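Report of the visiting student (M.T.), summer placement. My assignment was to run the structure pipeline on a short list of targets and document each run. The first record concerns Arabinofuranan 3-O-arabinosyltransferase.
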Amino acid sequence: MATMVTGTPAGPSSTDAASSGGPREPVTGRFRALLGRWRLALVCAGFLVLAMLQAPGKILGDTKSDLVVDPLAFLGRALTLWEPEGAAGQIQNQAYGYLFPMGPFFALGQLAGVPAWIVQRLWFAALMSVAFLGVVLLARRLRIGTPATAVLAGIAYALSPRMVTEIGAISIETIPLALAPWVLVPLVGAADRGSARRAAALSGLAVFCVGGVNAVATAAVLPLAVLYLLTRPAGPFKRRLIAWWVVAVGLATAWWAGPLVLLGRFGSSFLYYIETAAATTFPTDVLSVLRGTSHWLAALASPSGPNWPAGWALVHEVVPIVGTVLLATAGLAAMCRRDLPERTWLVLGLLAGVGLVSLGHLAEVQGVLAERLHDWLDGPLAPLRNVHKWDPVVRLPLVLGLAHLGGVAVRHVRRVREDAGARHGRRGGATLASRAVLLALALALVASVSPALAGRLAPPAGFSDVPGYWQQTADFLAAEQPSGRALLVPGSSFPEYEWGTPIDEPMQALAESPWDVRNAIPLTPEGHIRMLDAIEARLEVGEGSAGLTRYLARAGISHLVLRNDLDTGEAVATRAVLVRQALRDSPGIGLVATFGPVSGGDDLRDGSVADAGLDEPAPAVEVYAVADTAPSAWTAPLSSAVTVHGGPEALLSLEDRGMITDRPTLMAGTPGAPIEPAMVTDALIRRERNYGRLIGATSGGLTEQDALRLDNPARDYVLPALGAAESVIEYLGGTPTASSSASDADGFAAARLDTQPWSAVDADPMTAWRPAPWDESGEPPWWRLTTERPVAAREIIVSLGQEPGVARPEELRITTDTGELVVRVADTGEEQALPLPEGYTSTVTISSLVPAGAPGAPALSIAEVRVPGVNMHRSAVTPSPASPVSVFAFDALRGRSGCVTGAEGDPRCAPGLVSGSEEAIWLDRGFSTSQWFDYEVFATAVARPGRALDAVLAEARGSARVEASSEPVTDPRGSGAAAVDGNPATAWMAGGDDFRPTLELTWDEPRAVDSLRVVTAPGLAAATPTAVSIDAGGLPRTVRLAEDGIAQFAPVVTDRLSVTFLLPGDAESVDPYTRWEQRLGVGVSELEVGGPNPVADPDTEVFFECGEGPEVRVDGTVMLTAARTTVGRLEAQRPLALEFCDTAPTIRLPAGEHRLLGRSSATMSIDSTTLLRVGSPGDTDRGVRTAAETPRWNAEHRTVQVEDRSEDTLLVIPENTNPGWTARLDGQVLAPVAVDGWQQGYILPPGAAGTVQLDFAPGPYYRAALAVGAGAVLLLVLVAALPARPGRNRPPRSPGRAAALSAVLMTAFVTGAALLGTALVGGLVGMAALAGLWVLRQLLPRTAPALLGSVAVLALVVAGGLLLADADGTETQRQVLAVVALSAVVAGVVPGLPARWLPGRRGAPAVVAGR
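After the run finished, the structure tokens were exported:
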């Protein structure tokens, strides 16, 4: 039978005021009394000072930047559910939750004219003060500790690890922490002070004040209150209190519960595309939970430092770790004491909190349902995924325990002082121990809050104010946008600017016209996200086109805002120079305005440049206009619509071909999509996506059988009817696999698509398979080829790749089905034959002998593998429509050459720009036709950088042929050929690790040479040589260069000259993404031998004869090509149309599966192929887009005037689709369709002109829900304000039988809760520890509290020591120890057996729970 301890007096009264009368106190006594009266105000003032000292003068990127910058405008927008300005129309995500209390707080500051940064600090101080005062008052109500130790506990709570970690970054999530004590305060002692109704209502008002931004965070204030109510003595008062409290909580949360339901019904589902359970539960081991360091973001850092400095310190630094461990230990020790008031409730609350925060944590020692719960957190329990939000349930019991332990020590010291006649000895030792405990608690508190005291609450890169040029940009766009929207480019996961880091884009607060941006979590349909990604992919490679202009225009994008003030490295965004080139090369896109100062392009210091000179000077903001933007509402005949297979991104390649201009498209599988015309593309290839990145976010193409590397709920952004859009990789002849690759999406770096296992057999030595540099498996990396049929080859031909600065392996292990060999390999990138074990085999595995990540491990990289008798291909198999296809459009997956054209037309080249091709040689596609059709074949190509192209250009210019000792950039504008092209704007740049950079020139005829000149263009980001070594086949000669770069020497007649560049100065480049300094190699703009190099006009024509261009095959038909282009187009690698040798070929294809192959030549890479069905010219004609008038156009209600129609017509609104939008014409509801995969479309039936009424139906319900919620809060205030009815203050006593039944039920509840909680937290280990310690407690009842406390303290202290000694190697040991410590606390409250049941204990007093 259990006896609950409720409100047992455990200390003096809650006042330290001196009694009146008697002699006058000395000054020190009066000072102490004054301090006692004002201590709470002094602490709150200290919080204010602490808050003001955090990055003074800076606005921090906290929660919502527009709430800080313009709170009144933000609150006004929060009153509508549909927000049309941002993200092409969106449901505002929980904006209603800021209506109270955060929004009004900042609004009052704005109305009072207080600077925004000061309002922000006042908010921080208010949160800390509310949390502090709540704990002090709660401790007094519970009679826990003394007034002084209650203050100590309040400070520990107000500056708890969660508060310290989050208050500067996401302060909205600290509101539940601050108000959790206040939810309990009215309930404690309710029976003695007033009615159940008033107590419950006051508690409900505290719940109301928590706000509704995040339902889970708000719910974190409820578990302790629920447990408190359940552990009250049985009787009518308990039932009334619970009933009233349930009603009060319902009234308090009604104002956001209704809008939350609408958000869940009509909002975009983004939970699959954010952090996963693997990330959020990783730091939730029991020790971390008890310490308060369970937030997964606290451990993250960028090359410039921690994202959250205070949280980082709590996780990694010694002093805060020691402090948090000691405070947690003190809390556990207190809970093992019998004299702790409300011990059972506090222990069950702690256990519940640890269980909630550690939910789904996977480890060697884990809860009994951990794996299933972990999976559910990525599924049905996804809203609970951020389990750290339950931290208040853990923290409050621990700090109350801290107050009690301190109170015990204080009272002991006071008793000793009062006992003037006490002898020394044991009492003196106990006093010393008590004082040591108090000192340790104080020092531990200081240590745990040291990051706050050090001014690290503020995240880095706060800002003084949004620069004025952003307001100018917003004003310009508002004046220039009658329709359309502005797209901020380049995209970035977060707004990391050179002037600071607001958590939201500045346009969110400033814009008065529609705008859009690709960020980390677009709260929009997946089709819209894919559309933005297609734009970003083009900008990332710096490739512009008329098709890009049309693609932007059909998306309703009227302006592009180039953010040159974006911190490219911190934001991990595309370089502005690439974006600028793409826009400049897109006809119809033009610069219309610039704002802000010119910056960039400056050297960081002598000999060091930023980003290899790619950061060119530019205004902070450049605004470009897009021609012929789609109006806000337009119509087109439904018969002109095109069905597209390939996702929204496919429209960009089709616009490049001019095949869907001004025509609406419907994605295949969309209800209402026409059967014809249909177009099939390969734009959407099966991949795996890392949602935490924008650049390099997707893996190489995948087969259906490829295992996924990430534990994401969704592999990629999901589209309806994905099977009708997605192409899948298939291997023919054999399948390459590997232990890992740098093309995998699970790494800390961008995926490199030219490093996948296929790269070792793609016939291109410039690509290579490379293991993932983040591989921590501890196993040697391996690459494997599995052939379709056994082969009996005796050897394989292997070319090894090279990782800069890392040695190649000296030995490799070759494994087949018949055995394995360890073979020595040469340190070369040339081909070498390696023996195979004898016998037939279907697998060949090449592996290193050294585990990945081992110190000094060589880098295994394989450029090429050839197995005799095995011919391999990689084909992307496109969707197979059942209807006739008008167009098949296939595009090669090209990389980036390494050069970009600057604003002044000057090439800028850097190794950091180079990205390899996923399809370097072959464009291989599988496709299907439903019946016999004739198709015309078209193809394009681009120049293929390399020595063959250099030779073609040298011939066109009449210049020397050149070979370089190193070419990190093979683009002809940055390769060795650039040194002899007669253009000083281009330059050869040697590799940074090339310590003898050499150019070897060759002429057709010998010539006399007696001088040369080395030209280095001013500002070239490279090292400048001061001497050269000349070798013409005889004895090399070293000559120093004159100031003008000339070197003269004895004449020599030769057709070959080797020039080595010596004594360069030191030059370094700082990579913006990694912040690493990289050595720059020698740069040579021109190497003039005997005179200036010949210059070719960029318009000089170059002809490639029949058979010199790429080859195209369709099934068994081989088509050779020729090409006609210019020197300038070859240098810039612009796409050119191929000419088929037999004119434009037409091929007849029967029904069934087919295969198209395009093979690149030595000088040209296949770029695209198109199959156009003969006899269907109208399928690709330009459409007619008719603008519709919009007399009324606001956020949630619009009217559109449509003309009379003789056929079904599409009404298109370039905003995101949403099921909440309805369209009516003459009272008839129009059928909705998704146009272009994401835009609103409605089918108009034939008929007369009329007015279409567009309404966002949930909008009125949203505002009604807010109004009803406001009424519910007012009702709650009224319930709390009504006086209590007389005579109902004390609950009646329960009859004896009812009391006995209540005790039995309580015993069962406590026992069940303890067992269940321990099992969920610690699994079998926890249950075993609980059972053993419970038995020990039964056997040693008198010393049980000290014994259990010792176990808890020792276990947790040792766990903390292991954390300091070896954080990475002691996870299991720490988990076991922390589980044992928690089990010791729980064992103290599990009801014991009656004494008569214990051997030798008959007649002894019963053991009661909580004693």
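Residues 959-1089 form a domain with the Jelly Rolls fold (CATH 2.60.120.260). DSSP finds 35 helices and 57 strands in the chain. I thank the supervising group for their guidance throughout the placement.
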